[in-house]
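Hi R.,

Quick one: here's the DUF2065 domain-containing protein sequence you asked about.
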Amino acid sequence: MSFDSDTLWVAFGLMLIFEGIFPFVSPHGWRDKMAQLMVLEDGQIRFFGLVCVVVGLLMLWWLG
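And here's the predicted structure, written out as tokens:
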């Protein structure tokens, strides 16, 4: 599998679409979730970020 700049831009565009769906559909629910995230400790947020990175890498490995 080869990655070129077009693939990177497509992936970035898809990320923006997925990130924008929830605030577009339910701005109040999105605001409530963001408020819940604000009370989490740094370690909890860091762990969630690590899990997202690992899952993303596993997906790329599996699809590649």
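The helical segments are 5-25, 27-38, 42-63.

Cheers,
M.
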